[in-house]
Write a structure and sequence with these properties.
By secondary structure, this protein is mostly helical. Helices cover 61% and strands 2% of the residues. The protein has helices at 10-32, 63-99, 101-116, 119-128, 138-147, 151-164, 168-175, 180-188, 193-216, 227-236, 245-273, 284-290; strands spanning 300-303, 312-315.
């Protein structure tokens, strides 16, 4: 019985560690904040110190507390938008690819429309029509962002579904009388899990960028702390011109780290999708043990065999003539 092994690549482990750290910060960050992020009880424009690890703003607010509290709203919006957008892309993409005909034409047209319209301007227009109270609700903002982030994933899933709908196991389910919705959910959807996971990661990354952008340009409620709100107040108070780097650099680093973690985890998903990439996660010692070269030459793809069979190296060179 074959067991599922997690990727052994250090890049994947590093990515999982980064994401775990920020998820923990999302859960307990507001409780770890030493001060109220909106309190103006401190000396303004002070640099990092033992009492204020990231200094204070021009209004005397603790920046470290704002960073910890803002992690929750940023990550909640990103995860909610990623999950909803991935669910929409799965439903629309799988239905369009499997059903075909007029259903495929209509759903593909809808996807193409959302792909053709620039996402950020559409997001700004939708957000401008929201009530003022809804702009401070992380769940509403997450749902709005998901409406502009599902189309690309739907197109990819549609193409993958079209390549699976004529496979033998799908034909067998159709012959024994299984319903369409059950075939799509039980037969096709499980074979799309790697693509769905990759789509989820990049949609979460898109949602973080979209939410931070909306907050940075002042379209969300400035009373709700997130990483974009910190950048908004730093820009409004000319922090870059005043050399107050401790105000705008930390949230930028957090955004970059989350994006890096998502990208590194995606490398592990690529290893599951493409077996020829599984050797990429081996260390130098493991490569020597298996007889693989330390560095892969151009045009040569290492293939990792089972423990019973030694590693075989395949090249794109033509076979010798008989």
């Amino acid at each position: 019985m074959r067991t599922l092994r997690l990727p052994r690549s250090p890049k994947v482990l590093l990515g999982l560690g980064i994401l775990t750290f920020f998820i923990i910060m999302t859960v307990i960050g507001p409780w770890l904040a030493p001060y109220n992020p909106s309190a103006t009880n401190f000396l303004p424009n002070t640099g990092p110190s033992a009492h204020h690890w990231l200094g204070t703003t021009s209004l005397g607010q603790d920046i470290f507390s704002q960073l910890l509290v803002g992690a929750r709203a940023t990550m909640v919006v990103a995860l909610l938008a990623g999950l909803v957008a991935t669910a929409l892309s799965m439903i629309i993409g799988v239905a369009a690819g499997y059903l075909g005909g007029y259903t495929d034409d209509g759903l593909s047209l809808l996807s193409n429309v959302f792909l053709a319209i620039p996402g950020l301007p559409l997001l700004i227009v939708i957000d401008s029509y929201l009530p003022v109270n809804s702009r401070s609700n992380a769940f509403v903002i997450g749902l709005v962002i998901s409406l502009t982030g599902w189309a690309w994933g739907a197109r990819v899933l549609r193409a993958q579904t079209m390549s699976l709908r004529n496979r033998d196991f799908v034909e067998a389910a159709r012959i024994i009388g299984e319903k369409r919705w059950r075939i799509m959910l039980s037969e096709i959807a499980p074979n799309l899990l790697p693509v769905l996971a990759s789509s989820l990661l990049f949609t979460v990354l898109y949602a973080i960028g979209a939410y931070v952008t909306l907050a940075y340009i002042g379209l969300t409620s400035t009373s709700v702390w997130n990483w974009g709100t910190i950048l908004y107040w730093a820009q409004s108070n000319n922090a870059p011109l005043s050399n107050e780097w401790y105000w705008f650099v930390p949230p930028g680093i957090c955004i970059a780290l989350v994006g890096t973690g998502l990208a590194l985890v995606n490398f592990g998903i690529d290893e599951f999708i493409n077996p020829r990439l599984r050797a990429a996660g081996l260390t130098s010692k493991q490569r020597r043990t298996l007889g693989l070269p330390r560095r892969i030459r151009l045009g040569l793809t290492p293939v990792l065999r089972s423990a019973r069979t030694p590693a075989v190296k395949t090249t794109n060179a033509p076979a010798a003539s008989q």
